[in-house]
Amino acid sequence: MCFNSFFFLFFFMLINFFFFVYFIMNGLSVFFEWEIISFNSMSIVMSILLDWMSLLFMMFVSLISSVVIFYSKSYMNSELNLNRFIILVLMFVFSMVLLIISPNLISILLGWDGLGLISYCLVIYYQNLKSYNAGMLTALSNRIGDVMILMIICWVMNYGSWNYIFYFDFMKNDYVMFIISFMIIIAAMTKSAQIPFSSWLPAAMAAPTPVSALVHSSTLVTAGVYLLIRFNYLLIDMFFFKVLLFLSILTMFMSGISANYEFDLKKIIALSTLSQLGLMMSILSLGFPDIAFFHLLTHAMFKALLFMCAGVIIHMMNDIQDIRYMGGLSLYIPLTSLCLNISNLSLCGIPFLSGFYSKDLILEMVSFNSFNLMVFILFYLSTGLTVFYTFRLIMYVMINDFNLMMIYNLYDEDYIMLNSMFVLLFMSLLSGSFLSWFIFSYPYMIYLPFNLKLMVIYVSILGSILGFMVSNMGIYSLNKLLLSYNLSSFLCLMWFMPNLSTYGLSYIYLNFSQILFKNIDMGWSEIYSGKGIFNILKNYSVFYNIYQMNNFKIYLFSFILWFMILFIFFFI
Amino acid sequence: MNNNSNKMFFLFILFFSTLISISSNSWFGCWIGLEINLLSFIPLISNSKNLLSVETSLKYFLTQSLASINFLFMILIKFSLLKNFNMNNIISIMMNSSLLMKMGSAPFHFWFPNIVEGLSWMNNFMLMTWQKISPMILLSYYFNKNFLIFMIITNLIIGSLGGLNQTSLRKLLAFSSINNLGWMIFSIMISENLWLFYFLIYSMMISMMISLFFLMNMYFMNQLFINNMNFFIKLNLLINFLSLGGLPPFMGFMPKWIIINFLLINKFYFLTFIFMMTSLIIIYYYIRIIYSSFMFNYFKMKWVNLLMKNNMSLINLSSFISISSMILSTFIFM
């Protein structure tokens, strides 16, 4: 099952690649429309849009998913129901492809809802309590986005069809489009985990690692960004775009800080994904959708690779995910640490790896176009924080001493997992340049003063030095976290957003509903409708029964009495 | 007097007496029919070997003869003192009261549960269905609308409230009969055709119920689940009870529906409310009887096996009729 799906998806990737090259070289865009049923004045039509963006994204999705399925053959080989897992992953890929190729809102809704549902199934795959909680948080946060898209479907019916692509040119300043743009931004924010919906992404790390590699690094969370890229032409002058800018740079900043306090390997990687998502959203809301798309694709490559390396390490460390137990792994697992290092450095934006092309372009565009000071500062600060936590991670995992047990066997030669990582390694090295040559037919004009150009390097060096210094822990190190406990807990716990999303939403309402249930359902409404009325009726019936069981003579006499009364009335 | 041919003779006279009563063109003829009715019913229900049935037949005789005497007296007063024929009158109230007493309708109904308790099922069937025909038709000849509406309300309330505390199946059916009398009297005021329709359906439902209880020889509620009824008998019981209560897809809903339709069109809102609420109470105590036989966790004693000897087909047919006749009847109009 694994091999079949791997080969199928790999072949699919190759097809997409060839079509992508053909389409982008010739500037083609194909729109299929299939009329399912047409009845009097109503017609149901299924449409598919294939242009270079959707083909490229499909190629990347199928590449990552094929590699992940191949990887999970070895990662999840002790799983009894591996077929179930593979089928879930395949359904996920199918929903994603449906989302990518659809130019109308109904098939977007199908793909979107499918993504949310299947990611819930995958997050709760290991059926323990933590997975259940994480799955509930994931599913309900995604559900908000689903509701928003359903409402957009309602509103877009004003225009006559659900093919939103055709309406951008004509209806830009309409009130309906205003509402639609608000809702689409909220939908994308829930899917891509911006503030205030960002608590589900670190929690969803309770899923198996192949799922994290596929879903939470490259496909599910980028669906929101992709949707906004499709809708970009509509949103570009709207007020809400500026709100999105604000929220996304705050997300970027917050997750960068929180990743520095984290000690769980997958959570660090999740928070770095969140930071990069904030980066993508912010550059999109500044008005550069193609750069956002570019960063989406390169990020997908190295983040999936990073998750897969984390999976190998977790397997090796006897399923422990805490980085405080790891150390010195570069000496023992050279190939895995090669992949880990390259993906980490690509994340930081080290020159000429894939991440450099997209990240550096983003930062230069931010510096070149005049935005305000806060945007500028937060962008560069977040880049520095990225390097900070990356180097901290590398120090903890690779360089410091090994902390787990006295006797250990660090096994790297699982070539199934390694081969799948090598594919992504190849792509993560080359995809930056390859994509930039394809997507940007001419380079952006950027003219910066010297120090501003080198600002990236200054910030990166600063971050790396800080990362190095922070991870120098000895036996007698002072726990500086406890010195500033309140501030640290605020920054570490993701600015308390998980608490808001879980306790804050459920505690008050559950409390209130308990009061209501006790007092009304089991209280007053019983006495006024349920048992109370029964008691009244029963008492009437008992009274009547006493009245009924009477002397027969009395009854006959009462009848005669009645007639005597009537007689008297008659003769008055 | 266990001789069947005797009973058949009196049964023949009973039927004939009703026909005399309703087809005469003078009030005397009506009274004669009522007397012959009484006289021929008494031998049917009295059985000298059983002291309870003797007492029952005596009670029946006393009440019915009192009512007949009053009826005769009112007829004579009406003929002699009132030369004109106007409806809203004390005399009409008095005549209606005596007829109501003959039927066993409230507020003169106190003999009815007592007597029903003392009779066997087949005699009950006669009492509840056939004996009501001639008083009702006579009621329709000369009724006082205001008095009758008040009596209807009393009927409904007593029929529903009285039955809540009963455990004897006969008394239960007696109170439901009083309740249905309320509906029937109102249907007389609408149209006689509608009364006929209601009466026929009601007697069909009562006949199904009573035949079922007669076959299983059940007189009290605790006997309901001692014998192991198989599924179809329980189903039949359920359907008949719900149909008697007037639940929609069953046959018993149809006449009540037409009556409610009339009520609402002519804006009898308060009366509709009373009809509805008392129906709810009645359905409550029907369902109370049978629901435990239909839950997954029903009460069953294993040492008594009910042997349904013959005529399962009749039971199946009756359930089929109860379920489907309302829907099938709409096909007539297609």
From TrEMBL, chain A:
Keywords: Electron transport, Membrane, Mitochondrion, Mitochondrion inner membrane, NAD, Respiratory chain, Translocase, Transmembrane, Transmembrane helix, Transport, Ubiquinone. It catalyses: a ubiquinone + NADH + 5 H(+)(in) = a ubiquinol + NAD(+) + 4 H(+)(out). Residues 389-570 form the NADH dehydrogenase subunit 5 C-terminal domain. The chain crosses the membrane at residues 7-32, 44-70, 82-101, 147-167, 173-190, 211-233, 239-261, 268-288, 300-317, 329-353, 373-394, 415-440, 455-478, 490-510, 552-571. GO terms for molecular function: NADH dehydrogenase (ubiquinone) activity; NADH dehydrogenase activity. The keyword Lyase does not apply. It is found in: Mitochondrion inner membrane. The keyword Protein biosynthesis does not apply. It is a multi-pass membrane protein. Residues 102-382 form the NADH:quinone oxidoreductase/Mrp antiporter transmembrane domain. InterPro entries: NADH_DH_su5_C, ND/Mrp_TM, NU5C-like. Its EC number is 7.1.1.2. GO terms for cellular component: mitochondrial inner membrane. GO terms for biological process: ATP synthesis coupled electron transport; electron transport coupled proton transport. Core subunit of the mitochondrial membrane respiratory chain NADH dehydrogenase (Complex I) that is believed to belong to the minimal assembly required for catalysis. Complex I functions in the transfer of electrons from NADH to the respiratory chain. The immediate electron acceptor for the enzyme is believed to be ubiquinone. This is NADH-ubiquinone oxidoreductase chain 5. It comes from Bombyx mori.
UniProtKB/TrEMBL annotation, chain B:
It is found in: Mitochondrion inner membrane. PANTHER family: NADH-UBIQUINONE OXIDOREDUCTASE CHAIN 2 (PTHR46552:SF1). The keyword Glycoprotein does not apply. It is an enzyme of class 7 (translocase). Keywords: Electron transport, Membrane, Mitochondrion, Mitochondrion inner membrane, NAD, Respiratory chain, Translocase, Transmembrane, Transmembrane helix, Transport, Ubiquinone. GO terms for biological process: mitochondrial electron transport, NADH to ubiquinone. This is NADH-ubiquinone oxidoreductase chain 2. Pfam families: Proton_antipo_M (PF00361). It is a multi-pass membrane protein. Core subunit of the mitochondrial membrane respiratory chain NADH dehydrogenase (Complex I) that is believed to belong to the minimal assembly required for catalysis. Complex I functions in the transfer of electrons from NADH to the respiratory chain. The immediate electron acceptor for the enzyme is believed to be ubiquinone. The gene is nad2. Its main location: mitochondrion. InterPro entries: Complex_I_Subunit_2, NADH_UbQ_OxRdtase_chain2, ND/Mrp_TM. The chain crosses the membrane at residues 60-81, 93-112, 147-165, 172-190, 196-219, 231-248, 268-291, 312-333. Residues 24-281 form the NADH:quinone oxidoreductase/Mrp antiporter transmembrane domain. Signal peptide: none annotated. Its EC number is 7.1.1.2. It catalyses: a ubiquinone + NADH + 5 H(+)(in) = a ubiquinol + NAD(+) + 4 H(+)(out). Belongs to the complex I subunit 2 family. The keyword Lipid metabolism does not apply. One of its GO terms (cellular component) is mitochondrial inner membrane. GO terms for molecular function: NADH dehydrogenase (ubiquinone) activity.
